[in-house]
Structures are given as C-alpha cells and as structure tokens.
C-alpha cells in the first residue's frame, strides 16, 4: 500500500452524508431530546461508560498492542483530528464502537481484529474516527441508554398514546443508520482505496471463516448493484424488510452500505477530496 495522504484541515462537512444531515435535523426537532440529554449528563453516564469500558478492556499504546495503536494514530493524522484512546476487549462476535463525549475512545472486539487484515483495519478505525469527527458521539451515547433514560424522566415506550416517545425512537433509529453512511466515508478516506473498504465490508458481512481466500470483491459489488437495481415486487419486499427488520438495527444493511460507498466514489466526491478540494475547519481568531 502506498503512503497514505494526510487530509490537512479537513472538516467533517467534507464527508457528512446529506441523509445524515437530514435525519439529524428531524431528530433535533423532537422536543423530548433535550430532556434526555440533560438526564444523561445529570446522571454522569458518560463517565460511567468510560470507567466500565476501562475495567473490561485493555488500553492500546506504544507498548501495548502497538500495531493497533499505530494504525489508530496514523488514521487520526489522516483525518487531522486528536487521537482518541483505543481499547481491545475479548468477544467472539465481531464489532467495534466509539463512545466518550468528553473523553472519546474506540473499543475493538478481539474477533474483529482477527477478522480483518491490518490494511482493512484502517477502514474500520477510520469509520470509528468518523463518528468522533462528525460529532455523532453524544447522540449515539444517549441512544445506547435510550429506553432507561425515558423511564427515568417518566416516559413509557409501551403505551400506544405516547406519540412523542415513539417519534423520538423512530427519528433516532433513522439518524443512527444514516450516520453510518457518513462514518463509512471517513473509513474510505483513511483506507484511501475502495477495494480495501469493500474487502473489509465483505469480511465483516461474511464473518471470520477459513475460506476467506475465496471471497470475490467483484461478485460482492455485483450483488450490491443487483440489490439496488430491482423490480417493483423486489422493491416492495425491501420495504417490508425495512419495516419489519431494519428498524431493530442501528446500522443499515451491509450490502446497501457498500453500494452507497461505491456511489459516493462514482460521484467524484472522493477523488475531489483526495486531490485537496474539500471543506476545511475554520481557524479560530488569533490562531494561524
């Protein structure tokens, strides 16, 4: 892999998906949201999450899992952002997440490290850094305890008449899924290779297995395009799947995410950013 290009001064606005912005605007119009955020801080949940994560994970550093630490450091440098803390925890089900509103950190499960190559980990860690840079962490942290928080402020999710509660849940789930499209773009900007990002998605979708050498990037992309290019009856089936299943997930379907990433590349936006044409962070007055 050629040396990766650092995107000096890049702003999250350069890669935030329009659907992410649209869904966030809808979410922030829900009157119940500020009450939940206030309760989140009042209870000190951000600090509690941090302490719990530290008690159950190993913090990576120059002398502790230095390969992972080096990938994270380089990835943060590419996106021109402060380095978060990085943790590794044992779990057989591949996953990774970002948390810590005031003290951001990324946690990788051991199985996801086993599933991906070092090069593919650039996409994964770039994805998690994208959540931090795009300021997703507060709402995602609140969302992690959404139901208990609503119970604490006296709202019930089981009654049929609480329209505000139902509206908040639906708006949050919609935004959460769209925020993943933004984070995927950040992963690609760090990996700097659509092939690498696609390979990472295939590995995470198929899971760790001994036939990894038989996977086909081209076949997976054909599958992703076929998923989008469907007949009327297939479209109806996708709507029914969305209504019955997707609402239960915080992430979009993996094949859909990969196809959205390819579309972003085909739009020319990725190449424009890599050539240096992108929105930059505003420099504070008095600073150079």
Can you walk through the features of this model?
59% of the residues lie in helices and 6% in strands. It is mainly α and 288 residues long. It has one domain (12-208, 215-274). Strand 3 (96-99) and strand 4 (105-109) form a beta hairpin. Helix 10 runs antiparallel to helix 13 (254-266) and helix 11 (217-228) packs across helix 13 (254-266). The model is unreliable at 232-250 (pLDDT under 50).
Order of helices and strands: HHHEHEEEHHHHHHHHHH
Overall tally of structural domains? 1
Low-confidence stretches: 232-250
Distance between the termini: 33 Å
Number of distinct beta strands: 4
Average pLDDT, rounded to a whole number, is 88
Fraction of residues in helices? 55-70%
- Give the overall shape: globular
Rounded to an integer, what's the Rg over CA atoms?
19 Å
Question: How do the helices and strands line up, and which of them pair or pack?
Answer:
Blueprint lengths: L17 H11 L4 H10 L2 H12 L1 E2 L6 H13 L6 E5 L6 E4 L5 E5 H6 L2 H16 L3 H8 L1 H7 L10 H29 L2 H13 L10 H12 L3 H13 L9 H13 L2 H6 L14
Parallel strand pairs: 2-4
Antiparallel strand pairs: 1-2, 3-4
Helix pairs in contact: 1-9, 4-6, 6-9, 6-10, 9-13, 10-13, 11-13
Write a brief caption for the model.
With about 290 residues, the protein is mainly alpha-helical. Helices cover about 60% and strands about 5% of the residues. It has one domain.
Task: Throw out a few tags for this protein.
288 residues; globular; four-stranded mixed sheet; 4 strands; mainly alpha
């Amino acid at each position: 892999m050629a040396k990766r290009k650092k995107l000096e001064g890049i702003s999250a606005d350069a890669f935030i998906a329009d659907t992410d912005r649209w869904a966030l605007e809808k979410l922030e119009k829900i009157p119940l949201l500020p009450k939940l955020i206030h309760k989140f801080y009042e209870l000190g949940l951000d600090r509690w999450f941090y302490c719990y994560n530290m008690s159950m994970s190993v913090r990576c550093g120059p002398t502790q899992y230095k390969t992972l630490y080096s990938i994270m450091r380089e990835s943060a440098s590419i996106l021109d952002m402060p380095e978060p803390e990085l943790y590794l925890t044992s779990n057989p089900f591949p996953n990774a997440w970002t948390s810590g509103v005031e003290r951001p950190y990324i946690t990788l499960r051991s199985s996801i490290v086993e599933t991906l190559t070092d090069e593919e980990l650039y996409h994964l860690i770039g994805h998690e850094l994208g959540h931090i840079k795009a300021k997703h962490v507060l709402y995602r942290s609140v969302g992690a305890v959404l139901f208990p928080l609503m119970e604490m402020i006296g709202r019930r999710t089981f009654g049929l008449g609480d329209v505000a509660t139902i509206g908040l849940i639906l708006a949050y789930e919609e935004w959460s899924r769209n925020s993943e499209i933004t984070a995927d773009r950040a992963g690609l900007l760090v990996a700097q290779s659509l092939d690498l990002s696609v390979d990472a998605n295939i590995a995470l979708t198929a899971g760790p297995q001994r036939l990894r050498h038989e996977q086909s990037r081209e076949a997976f992309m054909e599958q992703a395009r076929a998923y989008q290019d469907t007949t009327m009856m297939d479209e109806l089936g996708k709507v029914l799947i969305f209504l019955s299943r997707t609402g239960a997930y915080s992430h979009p379907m993996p094949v859909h995410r990969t196809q959205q990433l390819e579309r972003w590349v085909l739009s020319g936006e990725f190449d424009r950013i890599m050539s240096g044409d992108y929105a930059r962070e505003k420099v504070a007055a008095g600073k150079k």
